[in-house]
Amino acid sequence: MDKKLFPLRARIDQIDAEIIKLLKERLKLAQEIGRIKESKGVQTFDLGREKQILKRVLELNQGVFPEETLKIIYSEIIRACRASQEKPRVAFLGPEATFSHIAAQHYFGTSAQFIPVETIIDVFEEVSSERAHFGVVPIENSIEGVVATTLDAIYEYGLKVCGEIYEAISHHLMNQTGRLEDIKKILSHPQAIAQCRKWLRKKLPSVPIETVSSTAFAAKWAAVDETVAAIASLMAAKIYHLQIVAKNIEDLKGNSTRFWIIGKVEMPPTGEDKTSLIFSVADKPGALFEVLKCFAERKINLTKIESRPSKNEPWKYIFFLDCEGHIKDQEVSNCLEEMQKYCIQVVWLGSYPKGRQV
Question: Where in this chain does the record put each Prephenate dehydratase domain (predicted)?
Fold first, then answer.
């Protein structure tokens, strides 16, 4: 072996030892911060802090180390240190291996304490009652659109949106044998079925389809009934010991779902934020135009606007809106203040770090 390699490898070993030493020191500091926060009754979780650290780390890196790899490394370091303070309790639409579960793991890391529940409303209940610190709920899909249950619940429960994450969605047909001819019934979540409608009509036109509360629940059922097939994730096939009949059966590729992280905390500005609102306007010409003009005049970009029927009055509507920026940004704050002139009500749902679209 070339003698020139020995000093280089010795230096790498030395650097590795220094990295471990610094990681241990970082962990101790995180634990001390956790003790101080606990003594003062302050929330130990600061989800915006991770975004700030990653931004600073990437600036220090100056593009030398591969950025995506660096993000993964530092995200895991941050989550491990956070878990040493107190493991966050995170509710999600269960059982294990739903896309909500996958999103929760990607956002909080594997060291969090995950709480599976049966419905989206149950996620809100867990967070509202403080049995969970945070919840992960789907808010919209790139193909099927908004998840109405989530929009209605965020309004009714008065919780805050603390973050968001986008997950690429691929659907797979699975059963106990891996054979198409053994399928007598197909189960899945309504959104998953809707996203695979053409494939199912073409390949299995005579097989009955039934909806269940989640893709993972469908997989769990298929695991105990050999006549049933589920449309679910690869993680579900692994956890419930199912065989793949067909991969990637979604009708349109590039399918993704946006998930909200809900809680009771308000997130600090990071410089790359999004704000979510609910508002209602009087039933008169130009009312919505006046509200939208508040954003346009300040050059605040709207990323979403959606109307929903009001639960209080028939044929009346409320609007859900996402815009770029944080409520503590001067322009956004001024915009919301001016909106009050034209709105019957304005409800701030939260300002939080923007997720990266997939």
Answer: 89-264
279 is catalytic: no
Query: How far is Cα 324 from Cα 272, in angstroms, rounded to an integer?
Result: 8
Annotated binding site for substrate: 9, 26, 37, 46, 50, 81, 85
How large is the average pLDDT for residues 72-93? Answer: 84
Residue 321: strand pairing partners: 277, 305
Tell me the pTM. Answer: 0.79
Mark whether 259 is an active-site residue: yes
Q: From the candidates 98, 215, 257, 270, give the one annotated as an active-site residue.
A: 257
Compute how many other C-beta atoms are within 10 angstroms of the C-beta atom of residue 211: 13
Domains in the chain: ranges and CATH: 12-85 (1.20.59.10), 89-167+256-260 (3.40.190.10), 172-246 (3.40.190.10), 267-353 (3.30.70.260)
**C-alpha–C-alpha distance, residues 49 and 37, integer Å:** 15
Which tens digits make up the pLDDT trace of 300-317?
Answer: 999 999 998 887 778 788
Burial of 130 (0-12, 13-18, 19+ CB in 10 A): exposed
Catalytic residue among 92, 114, 217, 259: 259
